[in-house]
Amino acid sequence: MSTQLFEDMAQSIINGEAQEAKRLAREAIRQEVDPLEAINRGFVVGIDQVGERFSCGEAFLPELVMAGEAMKAAIAVLEPEMARQGTVRQTLGKVVLGTVAGDIHDIGKTLVGTLLTANGFEVIDLGVDVPIAAFAAKAREVGADIVGVSALLTTTMTRQKDVMAALEDMGLRPGVKVMVGGAPVTQSWVEEIQADGFSEDAIGAVAVAKQLMAEKAIQAQE
Ligand code: HCB
Question: How far is the CA of 183 from the centre of ligand 1 (A)?
């Protein structure tokens, strides 16, 4: 098949066109293109480009959000097809994600979830205003590799520490890595609570999550 379809897929993500991305995903199914190949050679190329442009200040948050939404729309079309064909998309790791109790900011957390999913992580998004115990309970239930804890208020960021304590109490640490984020979160806060990772943005969160998975693999060999 021509590479034009893959190029159009990448472009639909760069343009943040969810409808076009869905149309191209359906076209790939119609042309019997391997859905995994469509994701990796088409849509992922687009989201990577948007991510790089965002990192160097050439693209801004709305473009990132729209690209993420377009990516989600395309994957939603292709995932049932992958399941039907029995193709298993390689999962890099399982992430339980949420915004802490008392906090309803969800834009950044959702963006982190979208980009983690787009990059091959399985994400269980608990939403906003999530009770401390729910993070730990879900992590145990699904066998999470990473728990991502978002907090946007100085009054709620202390709950990131509480989530870590709850994981510790359940005996899940250090196997379950904790990645924190949100506007008030700083490196010194991360060091104080001894979280495993922190990122100021969603692209960085993907890199941190990959790094944490690499650390887990090394731990498993020891
Ligand atoms: Co809100 N709010 N807000 N707010 N809000 C902030 C957060 C202030 C900083 C604004 C200010 O005063 N300058 C402030 C907090 C001050 C503080 O505590 N230091 C504040 C306040 C005070 C409040 C209320 C208390 C206002 C009031 O009602 N009096 C109230 C609290 C409600 C509550 O949660 N209980 C409130 C409400 C709201 C909404 C509802 C109007 C709205 C949220 C809508 C929604 O999320 N659906 C809102 C918004 C939009 C903001 C600002 C303007 C933007 C937040 C945002 O979406 N940023 C924010 C000011 C600001 O942060 N600049 C303001 C964009 C995203 C992409 O960035 O930082 O959330 P992010 O996420 C990044 C990054 O942190 C990282 O990656 C993300 C993607 O790039 N990341 C993670 C995030 N989570 C991660 C988890 C990981 O594991 C890893 C990385």
Answer: 7
